[in-house]
């Protein structure tokens, strides 16, 4: 979920100016093809193998990469209920009904230290929210900010971890 990754990076960069965040797309493009999904290291011990490649080691030094954070997770709609009917005719149109659904967000971030070539931490967060959509003539969605809450939660934990490292 690129939007979620960008949210976490923006949150960290805006809260602590001493931390330089390199966006996922910029990082992957700078280290093409070594961090493409089919070739990216899956475990911290794979970093040694990767750093033996001269172009990779040189680019990592240029980027001043100390940590890499792998974020995994998703936001899913788990329950939904209700119904809504909409109609349009010669005299106008409109909707009537009520719908509700639950979104669950669960994310985990693994922190890899490129200096020690090891995983040095792991944080996770989860959030749940109920969204509603009442409709009398016009549907009015009231959306729970589940993904935003999860972003803030994991970004704050990462900030706490990274700030304590200095």
Molecular structure report:
The chain has 166 residues and is of the alpha+beta class. It has helices at residues 2-15, 24-30, 46-51, 54-63, 146-165; strands spanning 67-89, 92-113, 118-139. Strands 1-2-3 form a three-stranded antiparallel beta sheet, with helices on one face. The radius of gyration is 22 Å and the shape is elongated. The two termini are 29 Å apart. The mean pLDDT is 90.
Please name the defining characteristics of this protein.
166 residues, alpha+beta, 3-stranded antiparallel β-sheet, 5 helices, 40% strand, elongated
Structure at a glance:
The protein is 34% helix and 40% strand.
User: Number of DSSP helices?
Assistant: 5
N- to C-terminal separation?
29 Å
What is the number of beta strands? 3
How do the SSEs run, as a string of H and E?
HHHHEEEH
Assess the beta-strand content as a share of residues: 35-45%
Question: Which word captures the global form?
Answer: elongated
- Helix coverage percent: 25-40%
Mean pLDDT: 90
Structural class: alpha+beta
In what order do the strands lie side by side in the largest sheet? 1-2-3
How is the main sheet built? Answer: 3 strands, antiparallel
As a whole number of angstroms, the C-alpha radius of gyration is 22 Å
Contiguous runs where pLDDT drops below 50 for at least 5 residues: none
